[in-house]
Amino acid sequence: MAPRKHGPDFSLSKTWEDLSKNIREIQNHNASNLSFEENHRYAYNMVLYKHGETLYNGVRNLVIENLETLAGEEIVPTFPTGTSDPSMQNDEEDVLLKALRKVWDDHRSNMVRLGQILKYMDRSYTKDANVPDTHNMGLQLFLDHIIKPPIKDHLVSAILSQVRHERDGESIHRSTVKGCVDVFLSLEVDRDGTTVYKRDLEPVFLSESQDFYEKEGKRLLHSCDGPEFLRLAEERFEAEASRTNHYLSSQTTQPLLQVLKDNLLTPHLESVISKENSGLDAMVDNSQFDHLSRLFRLCRMVPTGIPCLQASLKKSIIRRGREINQVSLGDDLGDANDAEDVKEKGKGKAKASALGIQPAVTWVQDVLALKDKFDIVWQNSFQSNRELEITLNDAFGTFVNQNEKCSEFISLFIDDNLRRGIKGKTDLEVEAILDKTITIFRFISEKDVFERYYKGHLAKRLLHSRSASDDAEHNMLTKLKIECGVQFTQKMEGMFNDMKISADTTKSYLDHVSKTTAPEIELSVTVMTSNAWPMTNNPSACILPSQMDKACKSFEQFYHSKHSGRRLDWQLNLGNADVHVRFQDRSHELNVSTLALVILLLFENLGDDETLSYSDIKGATSIEPDELKRQLQSLACAKYKVLRKHPSGRDVKESDTFSFNHAFTCPMKKVKIGTISNKVENKEERKETLERIDEERRYQTDACIVRIMKDRKHMKHNDLVNQVTAQLTSKFSPEPMLIKKRIEHLIEKEYLERCEDRKSYNYLA
Amino acid sequence: MTRDTQEIEKKSSAEPQDQWVRLQSIDGFCYLVKRKVANASGTIRNMLDSDAGGYAEAISRQCEINERGIIVEKMVEYMGFKTYYETANPKEDVPVKEFLERIPPEIVLELLLAADYQEM
């Protein structure tokens, strides 16, 4: 066969007639009956013979014609009828969206078929003519002839309506909506890639959602309790996220969730948290960790959430804390009355003093319980969030420090535990108790007050050998050291040291006297370094009976022989003594305070009926009146009446007389007579303590100012105050007024001088 | 038909039927070609595309090529050549020169037109 020739037998009209007929067939889904080769060649020839434009416009018109037909036949009949029945509406919308999708699929497959036979046109003609190729022409024509009013408006409102149905709890065909939304997503309206979805659907969808959630938020707030609101709100978040994932677009997820946050959470969170009977407080009270976790999750979504939660937590804790403070205060007052009642009824003193520490123990236990409660919530529900931890600590600190006795209470609590609480407990349990106490201790802002009380209580424990466990004591001390540094515990360690040295000293003294002349009284001495112990330095004066005096002298002699130049002061009010006393029935071993022994010895050589008056005793011992009354009370008016008071009664008056109670009986051989145990201080004691603390603070402030000025030589007033505050905060929070006063005091003492600018100071060496 | 049907590649019985398509020249020569090889031509690829229906050729898997047998044969040779070297080791030299030498000068122009039409 000869080479084929492209002859002049090409006829434009004939070719186009055949081709256009075939294109119509393709649009009627009859492509399978057509020859590709034939139609491709038609298009090829048309382009080859320079009739590309005719071909292009012809095809374009055929596509438009077809689209208009499809719109008229498939879409327009499915327009909503305006029924008011929601389920009818739902069905109608479904049909409309399906129709659109069908037209789209049809059109797209047509365009693929056309694109295949028009390939040569796309390669040669469209580029030169600068017109869109077949594929893009198809998209453009679809936009112009289908996605236009009124079809577009019906589609958009159908999609919105479908969403509304689903939000109202009806079920819809998600796949149908997705089919239509996908069409919107694949149609670009400009060169930047903005889609029909972005232009025509998303904005109205978002504003519709905004309206919906504005109403929904208010509705939920009024109709639901706190947990229910949170549950539903979270469900809404999940539902909307799933909606955008399943049949909208992921690009809408963030803006839509923002709409929810702005309308459902931000305006209502505060009201929900503070709802009475179902808000934060109720959830904490009922340990509803699930609800609290949800609350936390939701709060974390919006910027105002966490601060709002923080504020409410703080409020809640402080309110609870105040109640605890109130109870302890109430107990305190009630207890004072009780104690008086007890006195009048003549009951044992031991019981009264046990009650004395009860408010402290209760308070600390309540605070610990509260702390535990919130810690558990924090761990379980708040994912151990740092910000919230700070809030919790802050809130606890606030109310703990609002109880002005907090330091004393905590120290008493520790005292109680170290004396008897930890007996029979394992090391681990003891450790846990101490650790817990430390957590409250951290909240105290005035650590120096605590230090004072703790030292006092520690001293009493040591001197009366009341400490249950040496290990526990040291353990506690280590913990305090870790919290506050070496300086804080230095003196306490000094106390322990003194105890140890004293034990050795006593032993070598006893060795010494056993070799020489032993005094009648066996003596055990604790030598206390005066600045380490919290005791007053002026010992209560007392005239000692000769046997006791001798014993003291003997020890002094021994001690001075070892350490010359040291001064020994006897703190008789802190000591105690064991003494054998012969009563009518039997003899008892009495354990009494040293001063009580001094008093008892006065009765040693008296006849059965002889009495001593108060003033006799006072004269013979010269014990201070308050102390003397207390000692007499414990001997004559408490549970064990070794002395008789005439007339009998609860209080010791200066007109009373006393006699030895020969008829004293007691089932036990050993009798311990009322050492006064610790209890919460009364007002006067407290005042005294505070005065001492104030004094100490003045010294500390002075020292601190001088230290800083020595270093800096010259400083502005404000800087100095700030520095001092910063350095002292670990111990207490100094008032600016106090610092100012101390500065003036130091100027008077000529440590500092005021500069001429009246705003700064110079250090004077 | 003046000449026997030639088979360019041996048909393997394990491969499914639709792996193979028949190319027929205007003067009656038939070439059984693997679909993969036939797809080296854009036009034939479109012709055989059977996504959602397709044209008559896609259904019958028979393509009438409006060229003489000698042209179709060279096209098929080139399609095989192209398909092979597209997937071959890139280090291997493509013997373009040898291929060009195998084209008889008298069919060059006709082959060129056919190649343009067939988009290959």
UniProtKB/TrEMBL annotation, chain A:
Gene Ontology molecular function terms on file: ubiquitin protein ligase binding
Tagged with keyword Ubl conjugation: yes
UniProt keyword Heme present: no
GO cellular component terms listed in the entry, alphabetical order: cullin-RING ubiquitin ligase complex
UniProt KW keywords: Isopeptide bond, Ubl conjugation
PANTHER family, per database record: CULLIN
Stated name of the protein: Cullin-domain-containing protein
Organism listed in the record: Pholiota conissans
UniProtKB/TrEMBL annotation, chain B:
SUPFAM superfamilies reported in the protein's UniProt record: POZ domain
Sorted UniProt keywords: Nucleus
Superkingdom per UniProt: Eukaryota
InterPro entries attached to this UniProt entry: ELC1, SKP1-like, SKP1/BTB/POZ_sf
Single biological process term from Gene Ontology: ubiquitin-dependent protein catabolic process
Main location: nucleus
Localization terms from the record: Nucleus
GO CC, alphabetical: nucleus
Transmembrane segments: none
Family: Belongs to the SKP1 family.
Record protein name field: Elongin-C
